[in-house]
Amino acid sequence: MRSHLLNDTTTERYRASVTEGVERVAARIATTSRPFTGVSPDALTPRVEAVDLDTPLHDTGAALDELDELYLRDAVYFHHPRYLAHLNCPVVIPAVLGEAVLTAVNSSLDTWDQSAGGTLIERRLIDWTAERIGLGPAADGVFTSGGTQSNLQALLLAREEAKTDSPARLRILASEVGHFSVQKAAKMLGLGQDAVIVIPTDRDKRMQTVALARELARLDREGLIPMAVVATAGTTDFGSIDPLPQIADLCAQYETWLHVDAAYGCGLLASRTRRDLLDGIERADSVTVDYHKSFFQPVSSSALLVRDAATLRHATYHAEYLNPRRAAMERIPNQVDKSLQTTRRFDALKLWMTLRVMGADAIGDLFDEVCDLAAEGFDLLAADPRFDVVVQPSLSTLVFRYIPAAICDPAAIDRANLYARKALFASGAAAVAGTKVGDRQYLKFTLLNPETTAADIAAVLDLIAGHAEQYLGENLDRAS
Ligand SMILES: *Cc1c(COP(=O)(O)O)cnc(C)c1O
After folding, report:
1. Nearest CA to ligand 1 atom 4
2. What is the pTM of this model?
3. Which domain holds residue 37?
């Protein structure tokens, strides 16, 4: 079936096929009235299982009809204003256009001879991002699959820069609300079980620098090596930004690698009103940015930036068939020399199209809008006796929990909040996230959709309170 290969003889089929798919998605997006239909795994599984993968339909329209049933109809739609759960953003159209282009051309960014201009475009965007951060003239970096991979690579570089033969003595310091990928990375890097030291946070969920200083002094006394401090610029739950200048001072004092995980907070790099929240990030040795969180880009789009390009050599290996040492000497730009991946998508094109069509200010304005909305949401929650809200947001998340008017067992309140989240998701009316604060169960709004209004937030809070009250009403015996 050579007619399915995209080439000079099939461009009409390509055009028609992709257009048909775009039409289906557009029709769905135009008519979704809820972020989710509430379909259960039990209801959906048999429909997916029933497909005979060895019997093709031989018809694009029929395959799309089937896909509509299996996926599009019941998908979770992040563009809906009542999707308030995780760090997923609605996507900007120039980026979706970029995605369509990059996947059809199918460049692979490992080597120049598989990408040409693609490599140069990625490099420009790395330079652009490093400049916005302020990393200085020797900065470099590479696009990655996401924040998890960026953090892993940053810590790999930090481990190599620590220059020790006793990895058992290496320690990473991160706040108690840092991302779990730091723990995963430590494990993958072969560090010991207790390699990650958790630093407590203040009441705003920012790393306590006094505690960090104390730990660094202790490691020094005990002959242990602080391989890296991971400061988070926008924690996943609270959006809190660790005190970067003070942390940078301590890292300078102890000659420790400073990694700033700005997977979420990177949108501030484009903000015209809040860029100062990232002050101090320019002193980092490495920075994680997830454009697929706060730059309104489709998954995947992420990067690792480093202050000193030379540190990327720790990820360099030469293969004769791909990127021989000779090529590096000839100054052929092979991005694989800087990456943990080999074959790699041209994700950078999405950000490129976004900057060329909309510009960075427009992206920053969108992110500012959701941060403003979170401030409004905080006021709503703080004024509402039905809810307890944890911290005033600096970015766009709100962590809160329903509390009944009557005195009630805290464990029952936990269950009521868990129930409310589940019931809300099953109804499809809205999607919210959950998390723990201390031992207690909380709920979370992650606001990344500028189309969401304060009225949406108020309506979802009413729904949550309704479900929680219903739960406590029905379980009063067990609750008291
Ligand atoms: C989301 C997130 C990550 C992980 O990024 P992925 O792109 O999901 O791999 C890391 N750190 C923080 C602070 C995050 O919010």
Report:
1. 147
2. 0.97
3. 2-77
DSSP string computed for 150-193 = HHHHHHHHHHHHT--S-GGGEEEEEETTS-THHHHHHHHTT--T
Torsion of CA 364, 367, 373, 378, to 10 degrees: -110
Nearest CA to 114 out of 344, 328, 353 is that of 344
Whether 468 maps to a domain, the answer reads: no
Residues 174 and 230: beta-carbon distance below 8 Å = yes
Indicate the residue among 358, 378, 402 that finishes a domain. Answer: 358
Q: Ligand 1 in contact with 290 (CB < 6 A)?
A: yes
- C-alpha 292 – ligand 1 centre gap (Å): 10
Residues 152 and 53 in one domain: no
Question: Is 50 in the same domain as 154?
Answer: no
pLDDT digits (tens, 9 = 90+) for 9-37: 999 999 999 999 999 999 999 999 999 99
Average pLDDT, the chain: 96
pLDDT digits (tens, 9 = 90+) for 86-141: 999 999 999 999 999 999 999 999 999 999 999 999 999 999 999 999 999 999 99
For residue 299, the ligand 1 atom closest to its alpha carbon is 7
> Is 176 in the same domain as 256?
yes
Of the three residues 358, 381, 410, the one that is the final residue of a domain is 358
Task: List strand residue ranges (DSSP E) for 263-333, in order.
Answer: 286-290, 302-306
Whole-number Cα distances in Å, 368 to 131, 361, 433: 21, 10, 22
Q: Is residue 115 part of a domain?
A: yes
Q: How far is the CA of 304 from the centre of ligand 1 (A)?
A: 12
Q: Structure tokens of 116?
A: 């040409």
Look at residues 48, 77, 63 and name the one whose alpha carbon lies nearest to residue 17.
Answer: 63
Task: Specify whether 7 is located in the same domain as 104.
Answer: no
Same structural domain, 6 and 112: no
Nearest residue CA, atom 10 of ligand 1? 147
Q: How far is the CA of 233 from the centre of ligand 1 (A)?
A: 11
Calpha distance 462→93 (Å, rounded) = 33
User: In the chain, how many domains are there?
Assistant: 2
Q: Give pLDDT, residue 276.
A: 98
Give 369-379 pLDDT, tens digit per residue.
Answer: 999 999 999 99
Dmax over CA atoms of the chain, in Å, equals 77
Q: What is the CATH number of the domain that holds 323?
A: 3.40.640.10
232 lines ligand 1 (CB under 6 A): yes
